[in-house]
Design goal:
Elements (H helix, E strand, L loop, with lengths): L1 E4 L5 E5 L2 E5 L17 E9 L4 E4 L6 E8 L2 E5 L3 E5 L4 E5 L7 E4 L5 E8 L9 E5 L9 E6 L18 E2 L5 E7 L4 E5 L5 E8 L1 E4 L2 E4 L3 E5 L3 E6 L3 E8 L1
Length: 241
């Protein structure tokens, strides 16, 4: 099964300098929104005006993966410190038993980011944060941002700063593809997995379906996902059970 969701089909929320484009049910965006795709519970594009902030008052039993698309964002997580994020950086909040307050805020310039909320296999545990720096700023074609597969675990002690994937508490992979015009990527998966691809920029053909910037593509029943770029394109892909 393959379903392309156009930007016009998504939820659109605006408040206090924050604009959300929601692929799944979130806050006031409910029926007829889908509730999840596999373990992917939330996928939001968040556009922040200068000096704006997106806040979560209390979340538990969720893994929040944030990827900065452009601009600079300061991520502050109550009790766990703050991180200054630049384009390509990936930030993880593993909420565990609960995070009282988490904030992503801009300074004097606007910024855009993506957030994926993943449902862990086991709830509870201490809250944690992680950070993966991207020194090449979208220069790599195929990047594994975060993973819950043991074979993807980094072995280096400086995990999160050397380009290793951030560790997840679920059998999920989050990837970023950056393709030139005419470029192709083949992503192995399994027929019983749920793959969701967001076209962050550009125009692609994915499994024979056309998808432009802002589209989401829900895929299951495939053992490979093939992407062809019709123009320079960036995609973020979640592969989960």
């Amino acid at each position: 099964m393959i379903k392309v969701r156009l930007p016009s089909e998504l939820g659109h929320l605006v408040q206090d300098g924050v604009k959300l484009e929601c692929h799944f049910a979130f806050r006031d965006y409910a029926h007829p929104a889908p509730s999840h795709w596999g373990r992917l519970r939330v996928l939001n594009r968040i556009d922040l005006e200068a000096d704006a902030a997106f806040r979560l008052d209390h979340e538990s039993a969720v893994e929040i993966v944030t990827l900065v698309l452009n601009g600079t964002v300061l991520a502050l997580v109550d009790g766990l410190g703050d991180s200054l994020l630049k384009p390509g950086d990936c930030h993880l909040v593993s909420a565990g038993d609960g995070v009282a307050l988490a904030t992503w805020k801009t300074g004097g310039a606007p910024a855009s980011l993506l957030q994926l909320w993943l449902m862990p296999e086991e709830e509870g545990g201490a809250s944690e944060i992680g950070l993966r720096r991207d020194g090449d700023r979208f220069g790599h074609e195929h990047v594994l941002l975060a993973s819950g597969f043991p074979e993807d675990d980094p072995e280096e002690a400086d995990q999160g700063r050397s380009g290793d994937p951030l560790p997840l508490k679920a059998r999920v992979r989050v990837l970023r593809l950056t393709l030139p015009t005419g470029g192709q990527a083949v992503i192995p998966t399994y027929a019983d997995r749920c793959v969701y691809a967001l076209v962050a920029a550009g125009q692609v053909e994915i499994q024979g379906f056309d998808a432009g910037a802002g589209c989401g593509v829900a895929i299951t029943g495939c053992e490979t996902v093939v992407v062809h770029a019709r123009e320079p394109s960036t995609l973020v892909i979640c592969d989960s059970d």
